[in-house]
């Protein structure tokens, strides 16, 4: 088993270059400081195991009360999760259950019982849930629909403007060509006419 | 041009405000020498005063009605005041402009607060000189119903522009 020390130069953006994260359900990057001393694949395998062990009823709001590893940190935001994972206290509390080393790993595995994607989606940009999953999911769903509609409107706007410009261009081009031809004809015809006389002259208008 | 590529259709003016129609009269709308082309964007400061409207046709004895509405009031994602009537001018003789007609509802400057709104000008041919009554309020105006009420038939021309609040940053990247 190779021990990969992943560098933490750009924690939130650098992709994990380890062996295929086949169990990864969302593209959200996990900051590299957490994965210290273990290969990525092992961590992900352990996460899957943890989710199998996890019992749905055991939700606690705060990390302070968690003394078994099956508790899911439902009330915390992901940012809190990351903050506490670097906390020195947590490794000792959760170190007992899982055999693999590294306190940060354990916290990560056990807390991310449900897939990281759901965790992020549920808590991203919101206060901790007060009334459970259902309304949060609905709001998210509504927001998604609204965003889709807005995107569709934006695309329609863009396309309408572009088409209109193309029409305009075509029309102006035709008009231009027509006017040029007319201009040519006028220029060609002008010298053939007699120059205008600026003198008074008699014309016959009356019958007598 | 196939109907579904028409800017008025793509921009959903046909659909939200009007039914499909055939353009037969020219309609030119100019705000201080800025001509309104379908889907172009104008700022509220550009459209404060009523535009110059020139219509085509050939017979001075034919009269036209001009309607200007905002189908995206108060916001395009929640247009519960659709359509908001901004201007209504009737008895415009062919080949002339809106200033020759009867202003039934005076021009109200567009001041969108949320989102990017469409502002639509629609031209109808009148059967004769007719008395048009102003609606009681500007919001929830229905151009389709209005046309039916006054026997205006299908529109003969339409054009629209987009407008968002002065400091807005949405829409086409400039």
Automatic annotation (TrEMBL), chain A:
GO terms for molecular function: DNA binding; DNA-binding transcription factor activity. Keywords: DNA-binding, Nucleus. PROSITE patterns: BZIP, BZIP_BASIC. The keyword DNA-binding applies. Residues 137-186 form the BZIP domain. Residues 1-27, 106-116 have a biased composition (Low complexity). InterPro entries: bZIP, BZIP46-like, bZIP_sf. It is found in: Nucleus. GO terms for biological process: positive regulation of DNA-templated transcription. It holds the Pfam family bZIP_1. SMART domains: BRLZ. Residues 1-32, 85-141, 189-208 are annotated as: Disordered. One of its GO terms (cellular component) is nucleus. This is cAMP-RESPONSE ELEMENT BINDING PROTEIN-RELATED. The lineage of its organism: Eukaryota, Viridiplantae, Streptophyta, Embryophyta, Tracheophyta.
TrEMBL record, chain B:
InterPro entries: PEBP, PEBP-like_sf, PEBP_euk, Phosphatidylethanolamine-bd_CS. It comes from the Eukaryota. Belongs to the phosphatidylethanolamine-binding protein family. This is PHOSPHATIDYLETHANOLAMINE-BINDING PROTEIN. It comes from Salix viminalis (Common osier). The lineage of its organism: Eukaryota, Viridiplantae, Streptophyta, Embryophyta, Tracheophyta.
């Amino acid at each position: 088993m190779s021990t990969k020390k992943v560098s933490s130069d750009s924690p939130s953006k650098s992709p994990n270059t380890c062996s295929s994260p086949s169990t990864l359900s969302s593209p959200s990057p996990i900051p590299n400081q957490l994965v210290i001393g273990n290969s990525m694949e092992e961590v992900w395998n352990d996460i899957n195991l943890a989710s199998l062990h996890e019992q749905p009823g055991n939700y606690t709001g705060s990390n302070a009360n968690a003394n078994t590893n099956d508790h899911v940190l439902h009330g915390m935001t992901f940012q809190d999760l990351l903050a506490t994972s670097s906390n020195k206290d947590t490794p000792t509390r959760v170190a007992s259950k899982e055999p693999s080393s590294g306190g940060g790993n354990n916290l990560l595995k056990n807390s991310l019982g449900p897939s990281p994607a759901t965790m992020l989606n549920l808590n991203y940009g919101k206060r901790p849930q007060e009334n459970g999953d259902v309304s949060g999911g609905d709001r998210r769903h509504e927001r998604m629909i609204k965003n889709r509609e807005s995107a569709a409107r934006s695309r329609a706007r863009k396309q309408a403007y572009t088409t209109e410009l193309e029409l305009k261009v075509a029309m102006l081009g035709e008009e231009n060509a027509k006017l040029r031809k007319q201009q040519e004809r006028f220029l060609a015809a002008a010298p053939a006419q007699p120059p205008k006389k600026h003198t008074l002259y008699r014309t016959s208008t009356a019958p007598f | 041009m196939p109907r579904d590529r028409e800017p008025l259709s793509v921009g959903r003016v046909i659909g939200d405000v009007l039914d499909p129609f055939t353009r037969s009269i020219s309609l030119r709308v100019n705000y201080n020498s800025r001509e309104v082309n379908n889907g172009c964007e104008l700022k509220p400061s550009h459209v404060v005063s009523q535009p110059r409207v020139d219509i085509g046709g050939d017979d001075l004895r034919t009269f036209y009605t001009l309607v200007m509405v905002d189908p995206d009031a108060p916001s395009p994602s929640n247009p519960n005041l659709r359509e908001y009537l901004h201007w209504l001018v009737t008895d415009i003789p062919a080949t002339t402009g809106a200033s020759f007609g009867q202003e039934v509802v005076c021009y109200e400057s567009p001041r969108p607060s949320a989102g990017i709104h469409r502002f639509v000008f629609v031209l109808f041919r009148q059967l004769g000189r007719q008395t048009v009554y102003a609606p009681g309020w500007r919001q929830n105006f229905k151009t389709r119903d209005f046309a039916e009420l006054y026997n205006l038939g299908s529109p003969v021309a339409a054009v629209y522009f987009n407008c968002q609040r002065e400091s807005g940053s949405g829409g086409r990247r400039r």
